[in-house]
Amino acid sequence: MNTLKTQSDNYFKKNWETYQKVLANNYMEHREIYGVLHKLLTDYLPTPFSLLELGCGDASSSVQALLNTTVASYTGIDLSAAALEIAQGNMAQINCEQTFIEDDISKVVEELAENRKQSFDIVTTSFVLHHLSLAQKDKVIEQVFHLLKPKGVFVLIDIVCKEGEDREKFVNRYLENMRQNWTALSSQDMSMIENHISTYDLPETQTTLYQIAQKHNFVRFECLYKDTPESAQFLCLYK
Ligand SMILES: C[S@@+](CC[C@H](N)C(=O)[O-])C[C@H]1O[C@@H](n2cnc3c(N)ncnc32)[C@H](O)[C@@H]1O
Fold first, then answer.
1. How confident is the model at residue 1 (pLDDT cuts 50, 70, 90)?
2. Cα angle 45, 46, 48; round to 5
3. Which residue numbers delimit the Methyltransferase domain (predicted)?
4. Alpha carbon nearest to ligand 1 atom 8, residue
5. Ligand 1 geometric centre to CA of 58 (Å)
6. pTM exceeding 0.85
7. Residue 54 burial (CB < 10 Å; 0-12/13-18/19+)?
8. Tens digits of per-residue pLDDT, 139-197?
9. Ligand 1 pocket, 128 CB below 6 A?
10. Closest Cα to atom 7, ligand 1: which residue?
């Protein structure tokens, strides 16, 4: 197993319980975000549709968005085998063809785009791309364009800096909001999350993400949801 995978599995196991508390308390507004995704899946997409999810984790929120839709196939990619095992259990409630790939999203999207055998009506990613460098994000967005069917949509949900806000200011603002509002978490949970965000998170501005998308031929962009603290956005990049 390579180092990235080992780190991700260890990270997933250690932080699984904490992330469950964050989701249960809706601190990152997954309920609203995945409600918007459900509406997009039912209103915009052709029926039936195919969906590729980058960094699916345990897929618990995606399952909520996929219930009562015409999804024909679901492909979930994640570095963590532990996450994918739970994802398979969660996705059992959805009646569609399912594939789970344990690997790095950068590598998989490149391979899928190169072999041109598969294409998708929608590609989604939620709270994952900020782990990648700017060059890696650029490459993933470029490959996703090639993986989408005509008129397909890339749903990019992630933390986003305000215009003119640098990484340090964003992290301070995010942590400040967490300390004030994420009150159900223990001090151990808080310091684990604070350490993770301060070390690994590399958010971009909406403008940067739209510029990359435009460079790679996406024709239309819209933001369908902004969270209350203005630190995350639901962006749609249309082919
Ligand atoms: C914060 S969780 C988000 C899970 C889910 N998408 C959500 O919104 O709740 C990040 C997930 O991305 C996965 N991940 C991070 N970097 C990755 C990469 N380069 N390739 C594949 N998966 C990655 C982690 O293993 C983890 O399951």
1. very low
2. 110
3. 51-211
4. 126
5. 9
6. yes
7. buried
8. 999 999 999 999 999 999 999 999 999 999 999 999 999 999 999 999 999 999 999 99
9. yes
10. 126
Residue type, 221: F
Q: Kindly state if the Cβ of 76 falls inside 6 Å of ligand 1.
A: no
Cβ atoms < 10 Å from Cβ of 230:
13
Q: How far is CA 75 from CA 23, 63, 102, 162, 179, in A?
A: 22, 12, 11, 32, 36
Angle between helices 105-115 and 134-147 (to 10 degrees): 30
Q: Radius of gyration over alpha carbons of the chain, in Å? A: 17
Residue burial 111-126, b: 16+ Cβ < 10 Å; e: rest: ebbeeeeebbbbbbbb
What 189-198 contacts at long range (C-beta under 8 Å, 24+ apart), as own/partner pairs, is 189/18, 189/21, 192/14, 192/15, 192/18, 193/18, 193/22, 196/11, 196/15, 197/171, 198/171
Ligand 1 touching residue 126 (CB < 6 A)? yes
Going by alpha carbons, the residue nearest to atom 26 of ligand 1 is: 57
Could you tell me if 180 and 229 are in contact, meaning their C-beta atoms sit under 8 angstroms apart? no
The CA-based dihedral angle spanning residues 144, 147, 151, 153, taken in that order and rounded to the nearest 10 degrees: -40
Amino acid identity, position 237: L
Instruction: Out of 79, 155, 159, 200, give the residue to mutate to test ligand 1, the one with the largest number of ligand atoms within 8 Å of its CB.
Output: 79
Q: Which ligand 1 atom is nearest residue 83's CA? A: 27
Residue 105 Cα to ligand 1 middle (Å)? 9
Token pair 């250690």 is at which residue? 14
